[in-house]
Structure formats: structure tokens, C-alpha cells
Amino acid sequence: MLGFIIQRFLQAVAVMAVMSVIVFCGVYAIGNPIDIVIPPEATQDIREEAIRRLGLDRPLYEQYFIFMGNLLQGDLGRSFVYNIPVLELIGGRLPATLELVLISVISAAVLGVSLGIYAGYRPDSWVSKTIMAISVLGFSVPSFWVGLILILFFAVNLGWLPAGGRGETVEIWGVAWSFPTLNGLSHIVLPAVNLALFKLAMMIRLARAGTREIMLTDTIKFARAAGLAEGTILRRHLLKLISIPIITVFGLELGSTLAFAVVTETIFSWPGVGKLIIDSIGVLDRPVMVAYLILVAFLFVTINFVIDLVFAMIDPRLRQGATA
Amino acid sequence: MKYRKFLIPLTVTLGLTAAGAASAQKLTMGVRGGPESMDPHFSALGPHAEAAKHIFDTLVWSGTDLQIEPGLAESWAPVDDDTWEFKLRQGVKFHDGSDFDAEDVKFSIERIPVVTGPTTTAIYVRRVAGVDIIDPHTLHIHTNGQAATLPNDFIRLFIVSSEAAADYSTPETAAAGFNSGAATIGTGPYKYVSWEPKGDLVLERNDDYWRGKGAWETVVRKEIPNDSSRLAALKAGQVDVINYVSSVDYLALERDTSVDAIKGDSVYIMNLQLDQREDTPLVRAIDGSDLAENPFRDLKVRQAIDHAIDRQTMVDIVLEGLGKPANQMMPPGFFGSSEAIPMPAHDPAKAKALLADAGYPDGFEVDLYCTADRLPGDGAICQGLGQMLTQVGIKTNVNAISKTVYFPAQARLEYSMFMNGWGTLTGEASYTLGGLAHSNNPEVKLGAYNRIEYKNDDVDMLLQTGATMMNADERRATYEQAMEKVMADKAYISLVQLQTVWGAKAGMLQFAPRFDEDTLAFFISPAS
To answer: Angle at which helices A143-150 and A182-215 pack, to 10 degrees?
Structure first.
């Protein structure tokens, strides 16, 4: 087990190092960030001075090693644009993304798996057909459009929910969260629904396909022959057996939504990290881009690691393989 | 449609509705961009300065039409060739109750080069060589050489408190001190309450403001970068006023009785720029072979391009009416805009004849580059331009791209024909012509944005002498003359002047649109 963890850790370090090189070179290839942000009155000497202050006059490898040197001391650098430490910038916006994404992904998973199992268990009922029809919609309609329609309908026409932004927050362990307040919750509803729709559709499809397959297997036949109640069969046997692909997708979706909820965050003016990274790309704010993408790489490696552990827990076959 | 009557701002007044009355003490503004820090000296970006103007005052004020007016300085005059005397307003107090005096001005000027970020505010004090305090309300500012436009430079010279900001004036400490509010002590109409990057800026009224008390007790400035979301927030009643309504939405708003659309002229003009180097990279003959020389160096080719462009169609079709044809690089009425410049006629036949005359009867091929995400309609104008030029035989490949890629490539001189907007934010010509039309010469600090290697010795001379003329009338005449020469050379071809639209809840607010597109709470009042 320890060897497994060390192996994963080394993998993570390698991925993050490669990521930092790619981003560094990529930004360098696009051009000098100064040319995007410098005001038009700047004379030639002022431009040189601005470039020098950011250290952009040094050769690329030198800039890279300075960055890596600071990184090893736990300093991810300061944003060119905001002049505050990158970690502070990202950390200040992470809770907003975290609460939005967790609420949407978890509710999508719970609801999606339940509906999917039902649709797979009774594939011919009209309820199942309706569920499947809705899941097709969730797949095929672009999320920015759904977002705008949600705003138009619930915020502009009906006036029930706010059109965007984050609501009132309360501090828990020094971090501002908005979900415990009623006002905050009302702000979360629309963006969470918008984010959840695609995932919901995917979960329904996965759960349904899995259910239909497993219901025909000997496991279920024997369980029925043993006289177990249908509910027990579904909960104890079916759910476990269909959960491996679902957990894999859940993990990847959680990661990618945390990292790139940018469309929803933009449409709903949600002050999360997705919006931050897009804005940073827009002005080539390299410290933020590099730091953020390194953190994202770390996030994915961690999630995959946790998924592997969970597999081992729910599937005895895998557990035996790991210990052998 | 002639240009706007100058000193009569368009004011919107309609009856106060019941819905508006409930929140009459609080103004919530939905804006596209926001500050990058609470330190006013950190960035020269428009939205940054706009937010700072709520909390801090500038030494010189720029009015609705960018005319310069007294701000914290009551008057100013040159005392000799390289010294200006500024008389400061008396009795002004900072938000913490301390007095404003010459020490604060000197402190602010000296602080700027130390704490500025990459969007450098050093430009506002680049001419300053030294500051002498004569008495608490009189300053002598020495300049490096004659600096006729020093007061124009000072329209974004924000004055911070020399006491409150004393400990927050190094690059490491500035952001923390100002973002926490400890140093965010200004003399402006509103006091700082809270801010988070890309989030809300919350302000409360400064009851002792020297211009008088503002109309709103609380002001919230919400950053909503997405155009559709901002409009939705207005329609849903979350915000009272928004800036930068897109041209598509503007058409719909005209028919919408719940929202007032307020249209104002913008300082931005779209300029087509033609590379003047002997060798230019992205031009070739129709059959793909190399041309003997850069066709843009031939005046006839440049004139042909000018005649190929139908500016009125650009405005009516491409910009949905939100613009005006432009014949020079600044809006009419600005200091140095010339009335003697004719509006170029759209004449495709003449354009073809000129091309044939120049030795290109079959035309040639060129790659056109433009920004597509910087200003309203820039990508669409680019497309229109491509079609109009192709019609007269210049086969144009349109590349409307992100500003993130465009500006660095433009700075590396990789383009042959390119278009982007330029805003004359100071309202006078030395800003625009000095940056674009002078040959790029670091020694005289002019021409830093001349990315086509345009060089006209007469223009260079006019711009260099103009910069030292202390007499405003003489200077104006000199810049007008320079503008006429530049536009006649047609290496820069001005296309259209943009207009911007604000949206407000119907009948709730009244305000005059500003040329620099700032949305300032102090100058917005409830309709009554």
C-alpha cells in the first residue's frame, strides 16, 4: 500500500513539473504580457522599466528556474495583475467554487443514480421513458444556453431567484461560505442546476446501462432465488456492482468541474476560480496560470488516487489483487 | 447624423416609478470591469481609475467631455519653461478627518513609480523631475524639459493620504494596506467599506465631500463581465444601472419600456494601419508569388483602400447604428482634431482605378489582423473591411483574433495590415499623435505605438515642437496641422467612432454619459 502511495506521489510531481514547463513555454510563445496590459501613453523607457520589474527581460530558462526555486520554498509567486500572492488569490475564490461544485455534483449523482436505476429496472414504463428523454436534453443542449434561459425564466420573467452573483456569506473556520444563509442558497440554485444538468444526464445513462446489464446476471437470479426482497437486492447487490464506472466518472467530473466551471461561473457572475483562470489567460497573468494549472494537476492526481482507494473498498476482487 | 452637441450632455429624465423609490438611498451598479487593487496608483486601466474616482480625487479633473477642470488643484500656470505652479483647494479633508495639503500631493507623485504594476501609472508623472512645496497649498512641479500638457497628465493623478499610506508604499506592502482599507483614505465622494478582487466594491457616502453630498448613502459596484448576464441582472432588478450594453441588446432595449438606454459617444476610434516597411510579411500577389515591393508604401494604394471602405454601411449594418463615420484618429472637437479634414468618399470604381494606376490592375492578396474581443463590434468591422477590400480587388484574408494574441504580435511587427481601436483618453492630440504618428524614437520618447514604421519628417517636427508650446492656441494649431498631414498620408485610415450604451431602470436615474465611458456614482442622481 505504501509503495502504491509513493508511486502515485511521484507521478503527481512529474505531472506538475511537466505542466509548469508547458504553461511557461506556452505563454512565452504567445508573447510578452506587457504588450497587453501596458497603457498607450507609455513611452519606450517606461515599457522597458515595466518589463524589467516583472523579470520578463531575463531568458526563459532563468525565469523558469527562479519560479521553481520559489515554488520549492512554498512561494507560488505574485499575480502580475493584482500584485497579491497567487495562493491568496486562488484560496480566496476556492470556497465559492467548492460549494457550488459540490452541491451540483453531489445532487446530480444522488438524483441521477436513483433515476437511472429506476429507468434500468423498469425500462418500459412511461416514467422511465420520460427520464431518458430528459437525459437526452441534458446531454445535447449547450450549458451556456441553458444558463441564459434559466436566468431569463426564473430571474427576469418570474423574479423568483437572483440573476447572478454570490449571496450573503457566513464565516466558518475563517472561510466565507454562502450556502448556510437563505440568501446565499437562493443565489446558488440556478448556477448549481445549470452545472448539474449535464452530469445528471450522464449519471442517469450510466446507472441505467449498468442496471440493465446486471439485472440479467446470475448474481441477481441467485439473490432472488434466495428470497431476498427486491429493495435489498437493488441496494446491496446492484448498487455495488454498477458503482465502479459511476465512481470513476463522478471523480473525473468532480475534478473537471472544480477546475473548469468557467462557463457557468461567467454567465452567473459567480466569483470562483474558473472565472479567475479565464481572466488570467486573457491578460497572460502567468503566475496565476502556472500556479492554477499545477494545482489542477495535483487535484486530478489526488482524486484518481482516492478513487482507487474507494474501488479497493467496495470491490473485494480488486482488494485481493492489491494485497497479493 | 452629425456629431453630438458638445456641451449639452444627453440627460435622461422620466417620472419616478414606485419600484425605484424603495431603494432610493442605495445605488447598485453592474459594471463590466473592476479595479485590480484598491491602491489607485497600481494600474492605469480604465475600470481601475473609474473605481478609484469614487474614493480618491485627482489633482486635475477631466469633465464629461474630457475638458480639464479644477480638481484638488484650484488653478495652475507655468512659471517658467520647466516649472508649473499648482494652487491647491483649501479646507479639503480626508475620510479620516485629517487635512489635505501639499505634502499629500508630493507624497502621491513620488509614490507612483515605486508601487505601480505592469499597467503602469508612471505615465502620469513621467514628465515630473521634482516637486517643491512652497506653502501648504502651493506646489512647484519641475519637469524634464517643457511639458505643456502636464495638467492633462494629472487627470489620473490620484491623491492618497501621506499619513495613512506611509507604511504601505512599497511594492510588497501596498496591495495589503489598501485592500484591507487601512490606507484606503481619500478625499473623494465615497468612503471605502469592502472589496474583493473581481467581486463587489462597497462604498458609503462621505458627507463632508467638498463638491457637496452625493445622492446615495450606499453604493455597490458589482463586477459582471458577461454582457448578457449584466443585462439580466438589470432586468431582474439586482442592479440599477449597467454599462456597455451590447449593440444587439441595444436594439431590443429600444422597444423595452422597463429599461432606459442611454447612448453616449466613445473616445474609441477604429484605425486601419498599413505597414510602411520596405519588406512586409503578409502581402503577396494573387497567384501567391512575391511582390516586388510593399504596395502599402504607394500612396495610390492607400488612397484606393480608403475609397474602398463604406463607413456609413459599417455604422448602419455592422454596428447597428452605434457609431459614427470617422475621418481622423480623434473624435471631433478634441484638442487637435481638425475640421479641415474631409470625410473620405466611398467610391469603389475610383479605388479600382487607383490600384490599376499604381501597377496592381489585378489587385493583390493580404492577411488582415484585428482584435475580436476588445471593443464592441471590432470583429464584425474586421469582417466588413475584408469584404469591402476584396470587392475592389485586394483579396483580404480576415483574421479577427483575441487581443491576448494580437497585441504581442503587433508589438513584434508581424502584421502588414491590421486594425484596432484607439481611445484618446486625455482628450488631446499629443497623446494620440505622439504615440502613433511620430516615428518610433526612444530618444525623444515618442512613437512608442507606431507599429507600421510610419515616418513623415514634417509630422515629426510638428509633434516635437507642439510638445513644448506653452501657448494653448499655438499648440492646438500645430497639432491640427499634424493631424491633417497624417490623415492625408493614409498610412493610418480611421474608420468609425464607437458609441457606448448604458442601461438603467426606467425613470429611476439621471446622468450624463461621459466621453471616457466612466460610470461614476456621484454624478448619477435619482430622477425626481
So the answer is: 140
Q: For chain A, what is the radius of gyration of the CA atoms?
A: 24
Tell the CATH superfamily of the A93-272 domain: MetI-like (1.10.3720.10)
Cross-chain Cβ contact B176/A163 below 8 Å: no
Q: How crowded is residue B266: how many other Cβ atoms within 10 Å of its Cβ?
A: 24
Give the closest of A41, A84, A269 to B431, CB-based: A41
Chain A partners within 8 Å of B405 (Cβ) = 30-31
Of residues A35, A83, A269, nearest to B407 (C-beta)? A35
Nearest CB neighbour to A80, from listed B118, B122, B123: B118
pLDDT band at B24 (very low <50, low <70, confident <90, very high): low
Least confident of A42-51, B48-57, B237-246: A42-51
Q: Whose CA is closest to A294, among A9, A10, A20?
A: A20
Could you give the ipTM of this predicted complex? 0.73
Read off the pLDDT of residues B310-358 as tens digits, 9 standing for 90 and up.
Answer: 999 999 988 888 999 999 999 998 999 999 999 999 999 999 999 999 9
Backbone angles phi, psi at A179, to 5 degrees: -70, -25
Among B114, B119, B415, the residue to mutate for chain A (most A Cβ within 10 A): B119
Q: What is the largest CA-CA distance in chain A?
A: 86
Q: Are A84 and B442 within 8 A, CB to CB?
A: no
Interface touch B233/A163, C-beta < 8 Å: yes
pLDDT higher than 60, residue B117: yes
CA dihedral B484, B489, B494, B495 (to 10 degrees): 120
Q: Which residue carries 523607457 as its cell?
A: A45
Question: Which of A27, A32, A43 has the highest number of chain B CBs within 10 A, making it the mutation to test binding with B?
Answer: A43
- Asked if B199's CB is within 8 angstroms of A82's CB, the reply is no
Q: What is the pLDDT of residue B111?
A: 94
- H or E segment at A306? helix A286-314
Q: Where are the domains of chain A?
A: 93-272
Give B93's DSSP letter.
B
What's the CA gap between A130 and A281, in Å, rounded? 41
Q: What are the percentages of helix, strand and coil residues in chain B, rounded to 5?
A: 30, 25, 45
Distance from CA of B467 to the nearest CA of A (A): 14
